[in-house]
Amino acid sequence: MKTTMKTNEKIWLLISGILLIVLGVVCMCYPAQTLFATAWLIGCFTLLSGILRMVFTFKTERFMPNSGTRMLSGLFQVILGIFFLCNNLLVTLSLPLVFSLWVIMEGVFVAVQSFDYKKVGFPNWWALLLLGIVVVVLGFLCLRNLDAAGKTMSLMIGLGVILLGVAYLLGYIGLKRFENYVKEMRQVVDA
User: Fold this and answer.
1) Do the domain assignments include residue 97?
2) Is the pLDDT of residue 182 over 70?
3) Long-range contact list for 47-54, CB < 8 A, 24+ apart?
């Protein structure tokens, strides 16, 4: 039974963590470029998702119902992905608007859902209501200043990437400690 990772795998974990932290800082320092890259990735993922849906539908059409609808949905995703890739500036400029509207909708959902929690006797339902209202207000503030919303998105993306890098580094440190623990246990067993 193998109890430790290869050195190459640990080194790649360490390097990946460092590179993710650097990428996150770059995302935070260059918000406009981060939004352009995000818009491009959305286009790529939408295109790839459509292609994969069409391939899956083609391979399973004999035993899956509604294959025509799924094929049409896949074709729509392919067209949408191509549109996103060909109109990167439009998608980039619309991201803060879409983000703001999403935040508002989620805030409304949380606020409305808080009353369901109240009905079942959840004592802190009011906290959900309050958070939902705060989220809605923040969404409207983002709508009033889409440039700030775009910068906020870039900061959140950058922070997320940095935290992922930190998680990789912590994983590397944890693996080193685990390997040391295994070595110590082997020495105790061998003694």
Assistant:
1) yes
2) yes
3) 47/77, 47/78, 47/81, 47/82, 47/84, 47/85, 48/81, 49/77, 49/81, 50/74, 50/75, 50/76, 50/77, 50/78, 50/79, 50/80, 50/81, 51/78, 53/77, 54/78
The CA distance from 165 to 24, in Å, is 8
Q: Per the domain annotation, does 5 fall within a domain?
A: no
Mean pLDDT of the region 166-181:
87
| pLDDT tens column, 26-78 | 999 999 999 999 999 999 999 999 999 899 888 887 777 777 888 898 999 99
Domain count, the chain: 1
Residue 136 in contact with residue 104, Cβ under 8 Å?
yes
**Assigned domain for 20 exists:** yes
Q: Which residue has the tokens 């339902």?
A: 125
Rounded Cα distance, 142 and 131, in Å: 16
Q: How much is the pTM?
A: 0.66
